[in-house]
């Protein structure tokens, strides 16, 4: 038993925070990048330095969103508006693009040096899903999802991937828009009412709800169960293994 509605044919998993603990790697990278920028800005302007707070800022502004959107969202929360910029920006440029690029470089460095932890309950659940004959996809805002799946040893359990690279290639808006999840379901050849979304981020849960999927599972890693329900989760669990042997 997988704890899913009858008629489910596919499981669409977010990666960071659902299957792997790369959410902590991403959070650390966001904090390092933002703190370096905010500290330099405060020194330049002679204003107090206020650090990026993982406990509050990560979930509210960047978790689950594409890098550019997350970068801009947090900066605006501090009253900072920067030009968008582009690929030709110098690494130290004061643009959203440059800051987002710095964050990505830090993530890639940490994946190699720190590694990727997987949630054992998620691995058990993935095996059960595959044994049941259901299709699987990872739907992630990260451009590093393929690398993370390989490093984590999960690639063989995933049939399809729609990630930040795919979204850019296809012009798909990121979460909380439902387009990446809808694309994954279509690529797998299943209807949205036959697919279940698994998300730990508020933006991701909202994406699943907006897409009209058959069921949305919220995975509470940050003590935000009520917020996940408010954003559209049909059920909230603390670990995917909690679903084994149960019905929704």
In short:
This protein is an alpha/beta fold and 248 residues long. The protein contains ten helices and six strands; from the N terminus they run E-H-H-H-H-H-E-H-E-H-H-E-H-E-H-E.
- DSSP helical segment count: 10
User: Quick one: biggest sheet?
Assistant: 6 strands, parallel
The strands making up the biggest β-sheet line up spatially as 3-2-1-4-5-6
Instruction: Tell me the CATH superfamily of the largest domain.
Output: HAD superfamily/HAD-like
Helix content: 40-55%
**Count of structural domains:** 2
Low-confidence stretches: none
End-to-end distance = 10 Å
Structural class: alpha/beta
Oligomer: single chain
Give the beta-strand count.
6
Protein name: Beta-phosphoglucomutase
Pfam family, one: Hydrolase
Cofactor: Mg(2+)
EC number: 5.4.2.6
């Amino acid at each position: 038993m997988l704890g899913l509605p009858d008629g489910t044919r596919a499981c669409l998993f977010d990666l960071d925070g659902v299957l792997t603990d790369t959410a902590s790697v991403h959070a650390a990278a966001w904090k390092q990048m933002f703190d370096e920028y905010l500290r330099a800005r405060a020194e330049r302007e002679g204003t107090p330095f206020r650090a990026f707070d993982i406990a509050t800022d990560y979930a509210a502004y960047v978790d689950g969103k594409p890098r550019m959107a997350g970068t801009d969202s947090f900066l605006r929360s501090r009253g900072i508006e920067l030009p968008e910029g582009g690929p030709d920006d110098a690494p130290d440029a004061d643009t959203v693009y440059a800051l987002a690029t710095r964050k990505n470089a830090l993530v890639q460095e940490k994946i190699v040096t720190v590694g990727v932890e997987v949630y054992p309950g998620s691995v058990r659940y993935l095996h059960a899903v595959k044994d049941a004959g259901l299709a699987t996809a990872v739907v992630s805002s990260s451009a590093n999802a393929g690398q993370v799946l390989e490093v984590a040893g999960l690639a063989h359990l995933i049939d399809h991937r729609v990630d930040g690279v795919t979204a850019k290639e296809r012009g798909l808006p990121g979460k909380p828009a439902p387009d990446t999840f809808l694309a994954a379901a279509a690529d797998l050849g299943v209807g949205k009412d036959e697919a279940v979304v698994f998300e730990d981020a508020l933006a991701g849960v909202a994406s699943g709800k907006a897409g009209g999927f058959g069921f949305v599972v919220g995975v509470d890693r940050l003590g935000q169960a009520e917020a996940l329900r408010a954003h559209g989760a049909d059920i909230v669990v603390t670990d995917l293994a909690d679903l084994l042997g149960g019905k929704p």
